[in-house]
Amino acid sequence: MACSFSKQEQILQLFKGLTNQISPKFERCTGISASRYELLYQLYNTDEINQSTLQKAVNIDSAAVTRHLKQLEADGMVTRKRSPADNRVIFVSLTNEGREKIIGYRQENMGFVNQMLHDFKPEEIEHLSDMLSRMQNNISEY
Prior knowledge:
The chain is 68% helix and 8% strand. It is mainly α and 142 residues long.
């Protein structure tokens, strides 16, 4: 008995394949993991942020965020400090070196994205963005 996927199932398989390809190629191109890039990007857009708020913004589990931030701190890209009012709260901010690095990573990221969307017309990119946003909303409501 043959098993064939519906068009909808094929779309899911294509997304899984893209995800498996994007992560390692993104890291090779930019020199940083997508998770760390997202953390740095979020920090770039704020002066200082509570670590748990940052974790929710990037939607990465708290243990992974802590590991990433410890490594980024060891690399001199972020600083972490405990709140004097509540020792359980940790505030995170970018260092000047971190700010410079994220600008470079962003340029590499743009090159990666441009290659990924090579030969797409602007209206196709707009349409794809709309469809992916709708899919994301549908999944979050599931």
